[in-house]
Design a protein that fits this description.
Blueprint lengths: L1 E2 L8 H28 L12 H13 L4 H26 L10 H9 L2 H26 L6 H16 L10 E4 L2 E4 L5 H20 L9 E4 L3 E2 L7 H5 L2 H11 L2 E9 L5 E7 L15 H9 L4 H13 L6 E7 L1 H10 L2 H6 L1 E8 L13 E7 L18 E6 L13 H8 L8 H14 L7 E10 L1
Parallel strand pairs: 7-8, 8-9, 9-10, 10-11
Antiparallel strand pairs: 1-11, 2-3, 4-12, 5-12, 6-7, 6-12
Amino acid sequence: MVTGGVAVAVDADELGALGARLLRAADLAQAAVEQAHGVSTLGYFVPLVPSAGALVARLAAVLTGALSLPALGERIRALAADLEVQRQWYEEAEERAVRGFRPPLWRYAVHLLGPPKLRGLVTGLDAAAVLGHAGAATSRMRDPRLLDAVVAQQHARSLAGRMQWARPESVMGGLFLGREWVDVRRMTPVERTALSLVGTHEQASWVARGGRVRAGLTVATTVGHPVAAPPVTPGQALGRIGALEERIRARGTGAVEVLRTTTPGGARHWTVVVPGTQEQWAGGRNPMDNGTNLRAMAGVGSDMEIGVAAAMRQAGIAPGEPVAMAVHSQGGLVAARLVADPVFRARFRVTSVLTAGSPIAGIALPPTVDVLSLEDVNDPTVGLDGAANAPDAHHVTVAVNSGEPARAGEPHHAARYAAAADLLAELDDDGVQAWLARNRAAMGTTVPGARTDSFVFEISR
């Protein structure tokens, strides 16, 4: 299922009407099955009327053959279900998060006039709302008829409507993040909620780590080495994340790979591969943690943004040289935040980005960067942004269904998304094919005689 790309126009009501017509057709097929079963009793009269044998044989084929009426009804219902999924997804895309600063008046009263006990009560109600949504979302995700990504999206959007004012000072238009005052008036509810949780998560991390948290950032690289089988497809680029994750587990630091491809004519192309979240608590040696996730979701800077930009600079990427990015989960948040930054774009020419399992709907992507987002409908992570990706010409979203239950965590794994990316070339969609062509040109690995070298950067606090 594809949204965005070239000339996309969808009428969700029309999709709903077509789905209803398919269901009526399925009912007609079922009625025909029942009538055919009734007529099949003619088989008892074949000994008396031999000419009825041909009719009975034909009825048997209609009821039990490979192209039987029951199979037709099941197929029509499956098509109707697929169409309903697409209608639901497009409606989610239309229900974009509204940027507006309209705190409830009672929140002002609690913040400015409320006694400590009342503030404590409000905090307790907010915590109960979080637990309620978590429980309801978990229960709904067990329903095989619902899309786990959409369930997470609906609950994230609804919960953010309340939790965006959880930090009392946010109703005054901003709040302190450390020593920095952050203006929240132009943020979405999800961004305001994530921002309010940054401090709480950092305090919890400080406790979990026994007060031993790290500051500062170091970016170090290994000596580059030739790649015998360089990635030539988006799936192969994502497939390199597995080796990076093994290195992260062994070394305890973050890791980013930068591939340099040099053509026989001397032109250089670059591919940047960034994995997803590796640590739960903030303040550890590895900055690929949930602190980075919250900061990226809130639209404020993180250590990983600094680290990835530094790795690209240390790799020697020159201004104007084409860069492709293949990123997973948190890596997608970081990459989207970077390409949305005009200062970063002035230094690097990123022409294509492949995000896999990344909730980036709240980030305003520039039209100069082609982004393709792979999202598994059974992956709740892609719904944490509380909105569907805008179907823009420069941002194509491909929704896939792995068939794996969300509770197993399988739909979010990079290997699953790499397998899905390998199928992109088979999609008959102008937007997808245009993105593939630009990504191929940026990577440069399909140029005959090109040489690719790998540089792995360790990012640590």
